[in-house]
Model the fold of this input.
Amino acid sequence: MCPEKMDLFNNISLSARTVARRVEDIGSNITNQLINKANDFEWFSLALDESTDITDTAQLLLFTRGVNADFEVTEELASMNSLRGTTTGEDIFKEVEEMLTKYNLKWNQLKCVTTDGGKNMSGTGKGLVIILCIIHQHVLCGKYLNMSCVLEPVVSTVNFIRSRGLNHRQFRDFLSEVEAEYPDLPYHTAVRWLSSGKVLLRFFELREIEIFLNEKKRPQPLLSNTEWLWKLAFAADIMGFLNGFNLKLQGKTVLICETYTAVKSFRRQLALIESQIMSSCFVHFPCCQTLKEEVDSPFPHEFAGDIFSELKKQFQQRFSDLDASAEDISRFENPFNCTIEELPPNLQLEVINLQCDNMLKGKFQENNLTEFYKCLPSDEYGELRSYAREYSVPVGTRAHCIRTELLDVPRVPQQTSCADTCARTLNAGSSVISSDLKHRTNDARDGSSSYSNRRDQSGLNGCCTAMWKANGKTTTLSLFLDSLFPKTEDHIKWRNCFGRDCGPVI
Done:
């Protein structure tokens, strides 16, 4: 009916109630698919993150990564639970236990649990046995560095410029007039882990800040102090170095061996850079190199030495749980490079056969690690495949938890359950599982099949707007149909087809 008008109908948005209903359908469908996949898990691990929302309600995110016999790795949001009372280790343990029951998972299949290391997550005698999130531990290493002599004046100056509207406007106009390299100065936000490095770097590069402060009758004497400028340049470079390591650790389905390799590499790089800095070689520290060409004062080696010593100490302490499993991780990462006598007895014969097989050695070099173990014949390498599946599931970071917290949750009608809707919305927005919902032919409220097909193909992104739009103006579907089919039978047919969704959008 009216094929020439189908493009117009495919471009209009859905009402708020339809959005909420379909989000619930998509989230429930994805959860059911995940339950079916979980039945085939041989091993699984969990990543937990607990934070407080704007209503002071604690929200617990539970992510799971599981692997089946065919080395298919599934990493998904398992549940989001609201903790309205206390948030002790026992409370969190009960939520985890309920989640395992829901997905038919057994405790003896659990390989590890990754958290931020909070006491309610890892308290002695109560709560969960965990490994600590590597990204979080890396950030804590940076927070233990004593750079307050640099960071406090920088933050104070940034707040003076950014917290007052007039100052901020004048500062941006000033940068535009002098044709500065950057148009603005970012805020420092403690909860954003990359913020310190970005603010320090921008502050160092915008030398025009000193002129602006003098014009505002608020001079900052430290900007003329070469010793402090050296510390600023070093702090910007070392925090940028830490930020680069942080970004390497992020990503989904990252294997524990890849994460541990990044940690080991960073430790060695840190030792090398320390030796270079102590000999005034700034080849890897661009801010220090720039300042070296501008001033003649000596570099503060004592300040840098204290920073490096504390950083190495923190990295040694906070990644000790990975060091304890270094041998097992190394065997999983490269079975061709391990000593047979040091292997568990059940693996020795299979690894000998593996190391003598040149064809499999070629496949190891060509494929990624998961694909390599997947191609091993199960009748010849059953024990080795089982060992590999066990080390395919540990989650080294909570990066996916953090990304999920940053997702925008669309507004939903007040009659729906906020917690349930948010959980289903997060499922639909963060999942890599595609919804397999079919068009419900008997649901007249959903309109034409093109809407259901569009919902199935594009998931949440196809139905996140709660207003109808026509000619660039917000309107109701009823008015839209009136303008599209004025005084015609097609108008009546389409209105009957949409039913209650033709009413005003709330």
Notes: The first strand starts at residue 43 and ends at 52. Residues 96 and 447 are 40 Å apart (CA to CA).
